[in-house]
Amino acid sequence: MDPLITVISAAVVSAFLTFVAVRVWDRVRRQEAAARARDIIARAEQEAESRRREVELELKELALKYKEEAEAELRKIREDLHQRERLLDKRQDALEQQSEQLRKQERIIESTQRKLAEKIQECNRRAEELAKLIDLQRQTLHEISNLTKEEATKRLLEMVEQELQQEVGAIILRHEKRVTELCEAKTREVLLSALQRYAAPHTAEVTTSVVDIPNDEMKGRIIGREGRNIKAFEKITGVDVIIDDTPGVVVVSSFDAVRREVARLALVKLIEDGRIHPARIEEVVEETRRELEEHILKLGEEACQEVGITNLHEHLVRLLGRLHFRTSYSQNVLRHSIEVAFIAGMIADELGLDGALARRCGLLHDIGKAADHELEGGHPKVGAEILKRYGEPAEVVHAAAGHHESFSVDRPYTAIVAAADACSASRPGARRETLERYLKRMEELEQIAMRFPGVEQAYAIQAGREMRVILRAKDTTDEMAAKICRDIVKAYESELSYPGEIKVTVLREVRFSEVAK
User: What rounded mean pLDDT belongs to the chain?
Assistant: First the structure.
C-alpha cells in the first residue's frame, strides 16, 4: 500500500503544483495584458491628442482662409459700391446739367416764340399794307397802260418765260458737261477695274500645217504609185499636200483650219503606222475626223465651264470649239472670246447689270467666225443668225450682230461687249502683228482715202477697223459725199487684204462763225 500512497501523494502534489503554476502563469499573463492595454490606451490617447491638435490647426487655417476670402469679397463689394456711387454722382451731375440746359432752352424758346409772334404780327400788317399798295399800283398801271389784268398778266408771263428759257438752257448745258465728265471718269474706272481683275496671260497662237517626216523616202510612200496615195488623201481630206525639195517636212494647205488639222493629224498617224494606201488613208482620216469632232466638243464644253455658262445648245458648243482653230492677227479666237466674256461680266457687275448674261454675250459674240466661210455675210451677221436660230436671248443676238457697229443706249450689253472686245484685242501682247506692219497698214488706209478729190483729212481708228474721212465742204456736195464713201470702200476691197470688215464714215459739214465786238 505504501507505494500506492506515495504515487497518489505525488500525483496530488504534482496536480497542486500544476494548478498553482497555472494560476501564477495566468496572473502573470493578465498583468502583462493589462500593461499592454495601458500602453495601447496611452498611445491611442497620445494619437488622439495629436490628431485633435492637427484638426484644431486645420480648422484655424480654414477659418483664417474663409475670413480672408470674406474680407476680400467685402472689399470688392465696397469698391463696387463706391464705383456705383461715383457713377450715380456723375449721372446726377449730368442730369442736373441737362435740366439746367433744358431750362435755358425753354427760356430761349419762349423768347423766340414771343419774337416770332411779334414778327408774324408785323408781317401780317406789312402784308396788308403791301396788298393795299399793290391794288393801288395795279389801278394806277391800268390807268396808265390801258391794259386789262389778263393782258398785263400774259405779257409778264411771256417775259418771265423768255428769261427762264435762257437760264434753263445754260443750266442744262452746264449739267450735260458735268454728267459727261462723270460718265467718262466712271467708264475709265470700270474698264481699269475689269482689266486689272482679269489678268489673262498674253498669248497668241499660230496654227501650223507642217508635218515632220523621218526621211525623204517617206515622201515617195506618201505620193504612192502614180500619185494615187496623195490624190486619195487630198480627195478625202479636201486639202492640198505640198511636197517639195525641203528636207524632212511636208506642208498641208487649206483655207479651213479644222479640215487642215484633220489632214495633219491623219498624216502623222499614217507616217507613224507606215501602212499608206487608199483604203488605209480613208480609214485613218475618218477615225481622225471623229476624234477631232470629240476634241472640238470637249474644247467648247471646257470654255462654257470656265465662263460658267449652262444650257447652251450642242451645236453652239461645237462652234465654240471650232474657234480654237481660228486666229485673228495670231490671237486665238476662242481664248479671245473667253477673255471678252470675263471682262464683259465684270463691267456688267460694276454697272449693276446681269453679269451672267454679259458673259454669255461676250463668249458668243464671235461665234460667226466658226461658220462665216460657209454662209454669206460678215461674222457679226452670220453669228446673229446662228444664235437666233438656236433660241438665244435677244441681248446675245444683238451683241453678236452689233459689237462692231454703232449702237443705241437701250442696248447696254452690246456696248459692254464692244468695249470688252476692244480691250481684249488692243491690250499689249494680244496680237502679234508687228509695229511696222501695223503702221504700214494704217498708212495705206489713209493714203487710199486721201487719193479721192475733195478729201481734206482721213484718219484710221479702232485699230484699222474704221475710217473717218472729212471732206472739204466748198468742193463737195452731199451727193458727192455718198459717192466718195462708196468709192473708198470699193478701193479697199480691191486693193487691200484684211480680216473682218472696215467701216468707212464720210463727214461733210459747213461751219459759220462771227465775232461779237
Answer: 79
d(CA 223, CA 243): 9
The reported pTM is 0.46
Q: What is the spatial distance between Cα 35 and Cα 29, in angstroms, rounded to a whole number? A: 10
- According to DSSP, the residues that pair with 457 across neighbouring strands are 470
Residues 187-246: tens digit of each pLDDT? 555 554 554 454 444 443 444 467 777 777 787 888 888 888 888 888 888 788 888 777
Task: Annotate 453-475 with DSSP letters as a single string.
Answer: TTEEEEEEEGGGTEEEEEE-TTT
pLDDT value at residue 503: 86
% of residues, the chain, pLDDT over 90: 2
**Rounded to an integer, what distance in angstroms lies between the CA atom of residue 212 and that of residue 233?**
17
For residues 204 and 207, what is the distance between their CA atoms, to the nearest angstrom?
10
Alpha helix (H) residue ranges in 333-452: 333-350, 355-364, 379-389, 394-402, 412-426, 435-450
Q: Which string of DSSP letters, residue by residue, matches 68-98?
A: HHHHHHHHHHHHHHHHHHHHHHHHHHHHHHH
CA distance 226 to 274: 18
Cβ atoms of residues 282 and 236 within 8 Å: yes
**Average pLDDT in the 135-161 region?**
70
β partners of residue 253: 240
What is the Cα–Cα distance from 141 to 135, expressed in whole angstroms? 10
Q: pLDDT tens digit string along 411-446?
A: 788 888 888 887 777 655 455 444 556 667 778 888
Distance in angstroms (rounded) separating the CA atoms of residues 434 and 450: 24
490624190: which residue's cell?
A: 231
Q: What is the 3-state secondary structure (H, E, C) of 144-159?
A: HHCCCHHHHHHHHHHH
